[in-house]
Write a structure and sequence with these properties.
heterodimer, A: 8 helices, flat, B: about 220 residues, mainly alpha, MetI-like fold, about 75% helix
Chain lengths: ~220, ~220
């Protein structure tokens, strides 16, 4: 059946805005946790220890070769069967899965940042008598983090978009809110255009901030 | 609970068949999308302000909204105005349009990375504009661009799993079906994750091998 588009949308806007808020919340949480994971595993991947490099490569390469949807379904359905204490609600599952996902990408960005710091810097630190960890924290890390910021912000946009998949395990984020609204108002075109617009409003400022940071820090 | 992979092996052919669906959907929309992406890039680089704005707008809108919402718009949304696509066509169209925005940016970065001096050198050697473009800008540009294109292909392959949400029978959808049939949840999703991982690793190695052969210079 063909119907015309109806933009008299005010009554459906509040649930979509709540969904958008929850999307922002889980993205912020998993962005922070993922950055911490990324710093740890990225440092390990650029470290002189063979075991640390091997373990972090395994994590980073495996996660980067698997769809976020599979990671989500695995965390939600399969993990609790092996570790019953990890039976999490949907929101926590979403944050855990998205953190594991973004950790791998952030680690790769962080490794790039560390390896882009000129060798002379850490050599100078060694010559001054700093050991590996002091030179890492006080000399290499500050410079590496600065280089990792623009691509890290770029990944945050990818994270916001990937977070739309938590709707599949039933978490009521912006996408799921849109699905629910369409079952009530029977207007998928209008509703998903509004959903897309809300994603754009979340994501576009991040990308503008990213290109600003790139100019500023480059 | 005990792990038992033996129940899963009879279903392996079904999984591989579904993996093939994922791969050809990805390959098809990558080819179509890259072709579209070339035109989006040309629009962004054109002399006409309107075309430049269209190219920029297209890239920003696609890159700042999730593929899942784009698929919902095509699959559910267009139905509202009487345009109905089946899941396969919706995924092909959605992934092609999505891929176009990303490849357009990759082409732009690759062509811009060719230094202006090279272009001027080509002109100084007496090459015509089109010769300079083909031999001096395009070939090094393609070489610059290949690793990024491979990366984009792998990302597109991984995101083809979203097709399952609008009931396209690719690998993820089949995994979910098998999960509810066998209830071997852990085993099913482990094997599924491995299939995705091995395929994307194979794509990465294959692309590197091709680069080595094709761009020896």
């Amino acid at each position: 059946m063909v119907r015309t588009m109806n933009f008299d949308f005010i009554e459906y806007l509040p649930p979509l805005l709540v969904g958008a808020g929850l999307t922002i919340v889980i993205c912020t949480a998993s962005g922070i946790l993922g950055s911490i994971l990324g710093i740890v595993f990225g440092t390990a991947k650029a470290s002189p220890s063979r075991i640390a490099r091997w373990v972090s490569s395994l994590y980073v390469n495996f996660i980067r070769g698997v769809p976020i949807l599979i990671i989500l379904l695995f965390t939600y359905f399969a993990l609790p069967l092996i570790v019953p204490s990890l039976t999490l609600d949907r929101g926590a599952t979403a944050v855990v899965a998205l953190s594991i996902y973004s950790g791998a990408y952030m680690a790769e960005i962080m490794r790039g940042g560390i390896q882009a710091v000129p060798k002379g810097q850490s050599e100078a630190a060694t010559a001054l008598g700093l050991n590996y960890f002091t030179s890492l924290i006080w000399v290499v890390m500050p410079q590496a983090l600065k280089m990792a910021v623009p691509p890290g912000i770029g990944f945050l946009i990818a994270l916001v978009k990937a977070s739309s998949l938590v709707s599949v395990i039933g978490f009521v984020d912006l996408t799921r809110a849109g699905r629910i609204v369409t079952t009530i108002n029977q207007e998928p075109l209008t509703t998903f255009l509004v959903v897309a617009l809300l994603y754009f409003i979340i994501s576009f400022p991040i990308s503008l901030f990213g290109s600003w940071a790139e100019r500023k820090l480059a | 609970m005990t792990l038992y992979f033996g129940d899963i092996f009879p279903y392996l052919p079904i999984m591989l068949e579904a993996l093939w669906v994922s791969i050809y959907v990805t390959a098809l929309s990558f080819v179509v999308g890259s072709f579209l992406g070339l035109f989006i890039y040309l629009a962004r680089a054109s002399r006409f302000r309107a075309l430049r704005w269209f190219g920029r707008g297209y890239v920003e809108v696609i890159r700042n909204t999730p593929l899942l919402v784009q698929l919902y718009l095509i699959y559910f949304g267009l139905g509202q105005v009487g345009i109905n696509f089946n899941p396969l066509w919706s995924v092909l169209i959605g992934m092609s349009l999505n891929n176009a925005a990303y490849t357009a940016e990759i082409f732009r970065a690759g062509i811009n990375a060719v230094p202006n001096g090279l272009r001027e050198a080509g002109r100084a050697l007496g090459m015509r504009y089109d010769q300079t473009f083909r031999h001096v800008v395009l070939m090094p540009g393609i070489r610059n661009v290949l690793p990024a294109l491979t990366n984009q292909f792998i990302i597109l392959f991984l995101f083809s799993s979203i097709g399952s949400v609008i009931s396209l029978d690719e690998l993820t959808a089949v995994l979910e079906n098998l999960n509810s049939q066998t209830l071997r949840t852990f085993e099913i999703f482990t094997i599924g994750a491995l299939l995705y991982f091995l395929t994307s690793a194979a794509i990465a190695y294959g692309a590197r091998a091709i680069e080595k052969v094709a761009f020896k210079w």
